[in-house]
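tmp note - Outer membrane protein beta-barrel domain-containing protein
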Amino acid sequence: MNIKSLVTTSVIAIATASAAQAADVIVPRETAPAVITAAPAYSWTGFYLGAQIGGRSMKTDKGSSTLGYHDLKLSGMLGGLYTGYNVDLGNGVIFGLDTDVSFIGKKDTINSLTKYVGGVLSKDLDTINQLLDDAKIERKDGLKVAKGDEYVESITMKEKWSGATRVRIGFAADRIMPYIAGGVAYTQMQGITALEVKKDRFLPAEDNGGKLVASGNVYDETKTLVGFTLGAGVDFAMTDNVLLRAEYRYSDYGKKKYFKDTAELQYKTNDFRVGVAYKF
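out:
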């Protein structure tokens, strides 16, 4: 074998080996970075409708009534509906209008001490008869009211319903929105004055001692009180459509005169409420 052939053979062998090694080399591939999509911020904008329950404590200030409105106890549980609309103003500030109606159905009655017709600090005979006649209250068993007969007056007050229309300003942090609220509060109150007249219980039986002469409602008035309300609370979006609410509310319904302006009621309440609403 000559030198030229040997060189040629060596070159071919080296080239073949190099190609084989190149085939065994693994070239790493570049992997594209994963794309992370941020969840969109929750939108509070929209209409909602919900139901609420809660507890109410109340305060009545005594007016001109001698029976003492300050003794009325109308505290209790309440329930009702609420609705409204929120608008996102940007930077987490939410503006909303909210209105609600609640029902408590609580009533309380105050009775006066036993008084005597024509007695000291008591109504005279003509006044008692006039009250009974105006209310068309019949006398029992043909009896007549006489001086010295016993009588008891009572006042019953009942809250039939209450509501409010408010502006809310919220400060949203994604699905949590604390807020403050204020607006107009209104309630409907029923007032009843009753009168019961009996013969003096210390009279003998033959003189009808203790027998009922007349009994009935002298006045029955239902009036609407209008005032203001202030409160604060927090809304929490459980889902995109389900909103939970908890709030405190103070309401002052102002003053209203009852029973031909012979008595004045001033009504204030403190409420704590929870609710759940559907956002459309």
